[in-house]
Amino acid sequence: MIKLKSIISELSEAFYKSFEAQRMGNSNYVEIFKNPTQREIKECLSGENELGAVLLNNDIYVWARDKALHVEAMRQIGDMTDMLPVMIYTEGNNCVVYVTDAARYTRWYGQP
């Protein structure tokens, strides 16, 4: 497993933006963090064990996956063409990362 700390150790963090997302009939306040700190990651997890994330231009953007779909967050970040949408499942300091089906909106679609 990959250490979550190693993914973000070289990045400079910043709050990126917030927006309202509709999910299962509910309106959710969603915060997106750019290159998040450990505290911000824990805030996004808030009892869940998964993060939505997008890799773009050597940066990572994360949000609480239970509050917004990848496509909703990707639209808030900008042009989806060069984004790589991933799901991060965490367990303690370890995580598993995989590319989501939202990749079909990017140039990564169909790439090995």
Give a brief outline of the structure.
This protein is an alpha+beta fold.
Task: Please name the defining characteristics of this protein.
112 residues, alpha+beta, seven-stranded antiparallel sheet, 43% strand, globular
Q: Can you offer a commentary on this structure?
A:
The chain starts with a strand and ends in a 13-residue tail after the last strand. The chain has helices spanning 4-8, 38-45, 70-77, and strands at residues 2-3, 14-23, 26-34, 50-56, 59-64, 84-91, 94-99. With 112 residues, it is α+β, with helices and mostly antiparallel strands. It has one domain. A seven-stranded antiparallel sheet has the order 1-7-6-4-5-3-2, sandwiched between helices.
Q: What profile does the largest beta sheet have? A: 7 strands, antiparallel
Quaternary class: single chain
Taking all Cα atoms into account, the compactness measure Rg is: 13 Å
Number of DSSP helical runs? 3
- Poorly predicted parts: none
Name the shape in a single word: globular
Q: How many β-strands, per DSSP?
A: 7
In whole angstroms, the N-to-C terminal distance is: 21 Å
Helix fraction by DSSP (H/I, runs of at least 4): 10-25%
> Which whole number gives the mean pLDDT?
80
Q: Write the H/E string, N to C.
A: EHEEHEEHEE
The percent range for strand residues is 35-45%
In total, how many domains does the architecture comprise?
Answer: 1
Helix and strand composition category: alpha+beta
Strand order of the largest sheet: 1-7-6-4-5-3-2
